[in-house]
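Troubleshooting: if your tokenizer reports a length mismatch, compare your output against this known-good record of 379 residues.
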Amino acid sequence: MRSRILSVAVRGALLASFLAVGAAAWAQAGVSYNLGGLVSSEPYAAWIASDFSYGAVSTSSLVLDARGEKARAEASIDTSVLTGAAAQEAWLLASTPYGRSDELLVPAAVSGAYSPEETAVSLRVRSLYLKLDLDWASVTAGRQFVNYGRGALWSPTDIFDELDLSGLSPERIGSDALRLSVPVGATEGLDLVAAPNTAPADGRYALCGRALIGGVDGALLAARNGENKGWVVGADFKADLEIGFYGEATYELYDSGADGTLRAAAGADYSFGDFIIAAEYYYNGGGAAADILFPDAHNLYGSIVWKASELFQLSDTTVWDISASCGTSTLLATLSVAQNATLGAFVQGGYGAAAYGLELGQGGSGWDAICGLTIEVKF
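Known-good structure output:
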């Protein structure tokens, strides 16, 4: 706990220094502000490991964006009320290595079996950063999305942003980092990122160069992963032909002299008529030490989206662990019922006990299922 507090203090000091610089920059020009967000609710019923349960997640998200002539700041926070199975799942997730590092649960834990009366509040700072635009570069400090990589689900070259699979759709968790972006030409640039920890040697640091050559957008990465005590080299590309192709790979060398780790992903997407289809393959050569969410070597992802009209959309997404013969599939239908208001219904099925799996791998060797509704209003 003490090391975690120190880590927060170090990152807070870094952010505070850039906020001071940003305040000076904004003092020279007018600043515009924008406040937005959304309110959502997701009640559901679940059949997990032969047990039937109910749950609901109600979330309020606020985003404050401030822009000046040479600076920009953004702060976004999610506050969720979790009841029943949703609260139990959040407590279970927090007690495992899969726990989200950016989430605060109140209360932090509960003892006992599932109860529909259980309630918890989740607080999550999704972003909190300041960006200064200089004449020759831009500097960003705070919690931000670095967004390296090309993958729809898996991005081996993204060593900063963690993957969050607790919701219906995969999301990225931002990093507390310093970022310097230097444009070299119209389509080329260099990126330096530092995500320090309490001990600088345990942080993550990267240099990335990007260029567009002959219609292929590519990048090279060199990084230090202090958490794993290793050096990382990687590359990615994306080519938009009639079919979009992309791929990326990293190789990590460890200080200990242990065998290096190769991770790679490749995929394609294609649209025709009202349909969009995508498929992706992921290879993890390092087991759980390299990717705790997908520790097995061979994995597949596929999705198909049918945009039936401007108001109605139907999608199906499947993630399959080839090595363990298990995975999940989610069917989601959404309908725009009013301006900025969407109503949805979903069914999610899982087979086998994946490492992360449906509902944190609580399922057994058979089928598990969740069905529910989604209601979302943006403002």
